[in-house]
Amino acid sequence: MLLYAIILYYSSLYKSSYATPLSSSPELDGGTLSLTLLQEDSSVDMCPRTRLEIIWSCLATILAASWVAVHPNIPGRYESKLKKTVRRIELMLCAIVTPELIIYWATRQWYGAREMEREFPSIRYGESLIQSLVRVKGPLTYEDSQRRKGIKWTKTHGFFLQMGGFVLYKQGKPYVVLQWDTLIELYQAGRIDLADITEDKINDHSKADGFGKAIALLQTSWFITQCGARFFDTHLVLTELELITAALSVLGFVMYILWWNKPFNAEIPIAITLLDDVRIDCPPEDQSNTEKPVISFFPKWTQFRVAALFANPFRCYKYAALSILIQVFVFIPWAVGWHILRRIDQIIRIQAYNANPVFDIAVPGALRVPTFHSATVADFSDAVRHQMLHGSFSLAMLFGAIHCVGWSDKIIFHSHAASMLWRISSAAITAIPVIWGLGFTVDYVQPKVLGIVEISGPCESNTRQKIRKIYNVSSYILYCVVLCTIPFYIASRVLLLILALVELRFAPSNALANVRWANVLPFIH
């Protein structure tokens, strides 16, 4: 993060080198500049900016709102750097295209960390002394007893646990990644020692400290402030790219707040040794076979063998070309769409705690959690999940409403077609989250409605079946509508980004004028 601030600082120095020089006027004696002339023409910009500077400022803020704001879970111990980088890029793209889903994931983790912090003190003192003396080899000493009583579980502990940061070691080998229920069960039985796992020890695994996060948060807040100043200034114009970046910055600000106590980009978990043999419900993952199965999204009949080239080159060439065309125009788009829907399903649904290295889904005994994992605490009911979803959809509506600012006269388009495309796309990303919220509301109240129909005595059985059938059909139709709106939402987001980049070529002179007090903080732009 310090390097990030230094880069921003030197970029400001680069920008200042292109300031407009003060030239002398023939009407002035001695080549001096008249202050009266400057006061009369207040619209003169002494430090205009270029389009490249606008792109750089927006790019730095987008990275702060996507790459830096998103705190990934701990990767697998055998994963390559390439796979880790690809996963980070995927998270960054998710934060740019669908930031409301990332906020929902962050909200779930924040809620789980808060509930763990509240629940741990009562669990710590609810330990059975007789059970501990029987199971542990020998009674606890006075020092060990006092040391265990001094354990303080914080939100950082809860976040790190949900990241897959605590791995149980059995006989010197990694056994399983610990989750809340298993950790508390072993802790109550005296099988693990958490006294040495302090908040400072966990923060040592983080790649960013509070100062680095504060710098990135200040960058995001400062950009939003500048955009607001440009919008309300009568002499300035806000570009479309800055408007999109401001919308992402607002949601990135929420991500920073929710994940403030979560370690950033931690890659090495903390080993917790099992003090005595005890039966664990999750069997260990077999690490003997390090080769991973190759999974193909394409049916076998579209694939061909290279060895057949020598048997019949013309025939093989014909089928090879057909196979390539089918894969490029049919199965690759299908695989990409299927992967996107699966990722959305993983974010929305509550996943179990272990992850398959190929499919990134829950399997027993894996040593890392899924990419979008969050803990399932006791108080995480359907009502709480429903409230979190509606909160995320409300932020998505706010995200779209910020894009609707482009309908005003402060955003200038070079053509009527571009203006209409912007209006349609911004209206789509504002209205579609309303449909999503309605769909999840129907899904939430469906068991309650069907339960009321079942217990209603006066209704006949045929009437109950008709009501149930009508409700199920309407729910299915609404579910299909929600599913169909997902590609339209993503397409609208991509179209807005393309329009913003294209319209930057036709930026008017007022859009290139700088805010006069923008250089108050020299390295934040």
UniProtKB/TrEMBL annotation:
It comes from Agrocybe pediades. It comes from the Eukaryota. The keyword Transferase does not apply. The keyword Acetylation does not apply. This is Uncharacterized protein. The chain crosses the membrane at residues 52-69, 89-107, 241-259, 319-341, 388-408, 420-442, 476-502. Keywords: Membrane, Transmembrane, Transmembrane helix.
